Automatic annotation (TrEMBL):
It catalyses: (R)-pantoate + ATP = (R)-4-phosphopantoate + ADP + H(+). Phosphorylates (R)-pantoate to form (R)-4-phosphopantoate in the CoA biosynthesis pathway. Its EC number is 2.7.1.169. It comes from Methanocorpusculum petauri. This is Pantoate kinase. The keyword DNA-binding does not apply.
Amino acid sequence: MERTAVAFAPGHISGYFQRIDGDTPRTTGSCGAGLVINRGVTATVRPADRISVVITDHLPTGDPLIRYGSGLIEELLGSFGISAAVETVADLPIGAGFGMSAAAILATLTAANAVFDLGLTECGIAERAHMLEVSHNTGLGDVAAAAGGGLAVRTAPGITGVATRMFPDADLCTVTFGSIFTPDIISSPEQMRKVSAAFPDRTPANLTEFMQNSREFAEASGLIPREIRPVLAACDDAGIPASMTMLGCGVFATGRDAHEILAGFGRAIPLKLCPHGPTLMEM
Ligand SMILES: Nc1ncnc2c1ncn2[C@@H]1O[C@H](COP(=O)(O)OP(=O)(O)OP(=O)(O)O)[C@@H](O)[C@H]1O
Ligand SMILES: CC(C)(CO)[C@@H](O)C(=O)[O-]
């Protein structure tokens, strides 16, 4: 019987980051911290005569959008010499700071590993995903964070750079107005100089300190789009910890009252921390 596998990988909202260039994509990445979230990418992989990728993306309104083809996924499969039909569903808008590219690679390779008996460990899957992200400039630290769960604090680049993971039972929420083209930002020396100068010198001991670090970083980095200023101001007025989804035109916030405030600006999406990394799903 033809084998099919389905895997889920969580998304990641980066609160703050600093690019760290190593000698190779394996040793290049970022320090920083972010939230591994319970919405991500589900990938279905089955053997096929030729590689195909069909993506169900979602607009900020929540409306589905079908996309065909993914250079990242096609290169991933080609690097293993495998031919598969891949269908992915991104729970959140692609390109909007939710780590959908990292989740797509992790979910697809986790499923492909099962279908084609690639013999990869979880660490091996994460390492290949990280190197692909970095080489395509679609991310720096998302794979390292999403390979596990929780509030992930990264103190070194690469998939071994996560120093701590915290798992508070927190109510999270986000609203997004759309994408920011990540490659333009993280491949710009000028932007990365500003990002490095804004990087906080405190390692967060809890969610509150993470949110404070994130907002101070966002303000100092110059990355905040004017479209989200009213949202941040409303959260500030309501005493709701909030910051910019890095790198997307959106806001993430914490606390029971966050949803009501964000819903005043668009489709507010409730989130929780995801307690795990990529997982194979029962068929
Ligand atoms: N669900 C998916 N299925 C297949 N490919 C995807 C998926 N999501 C993203 N990608 C690939 O990643 C690329 C977009 O990467 P990008 O980094 O802009 O998105 P993101 O990871 O959602 O945003 P961010 O890095 O700011 O969090 C797409 O061009 C596509 O090749
Ligand atoms: C660069 C980045 C913000 C893109 O999502 C993320 O990969 C990170 O935190 O390194």
